[in-house]
Automatic annotation (TrEMBL):
Protein name: Uncharacterized protein LOC142168931
Name of the encoding gene: LOC142168931
Amino acid sequence: MKFIDNEIPHEPQRFQRIYIYFAACKLGFRAGCRKIVRVDGCWLKDTMFRTQLLSVVGMDGNNNIFHVAYAIVEKESKDTGLDILKLDIDAPTWLNDKDHSEWSMSHFSSDAKCDTLLNNLSEVFNGIILDARDKPIMTLLEKLRYIRMARMLANREKIAAVEYVPRKSNYWSYKILGATVTDNWAVDLQNKSCSCRKWSLTGIPCKHVIAAIWAKKDNILDYVHDCYKVETYRRIYENSIFPMNGPQLWPKTSKVPPLPPKIVVESGGKNIEVVVMTKEHGLKQLEEDEIDAIVA
């Protein structure tokens, strides 16, 4: 946190900026988030008018935003740690002066494990904190802290919700124990079934089946239905429909062309058969308005 001297002598200092980087966010980001961050700023409102909230947002392996750090500053400047490009006629020159790895996907480093070029992550975060942007400084900071705390807890509970304890019955069968007595499931790996029926319906192992597969130390892909496999996909499309000549090159025949099927039109609860003749049989084919006239 930084303060500046008051313009009035002997008065308390004024707040200038604050930078917040929670240890939980630092450790979480280092533990396994993708090695890329988005830096963006948004203007605050009302009592915080003409100040900005700068945010650093990352991405986890589930494509969720991971808020790394943020700062409340007096304005955009290099001194506050953010130099945002203003797109104008000089933008092409600005880009050409930068290394291609900084803005061209074709030159991105493979270390980041992310091919996203847009700044949507920062925009999503700015939308999440929309209701907090018009609050006084202390209320704003508390709301931001609560948003991050609640999000960390929600994602942590998501992981806990898919943790099941497998109990082996025989070589193929397992009982999967969840957090409550109503969250128990029977899995048969040999017959590829789970009592939740999701595996049977989709052909993709559900979370209960995955728990059993891990306990058996098998490969999950061995239990996925063949219709999802690359080899099956190749077999589906390995045959070709060959080209053929147009009607002008078709062989001629002396057989009489068959008649087209009858058209049955419903009118007043009755079915009326309308015979449609082809030109080959000397009659003009009936148009829709002619059929309507017959029915009427």
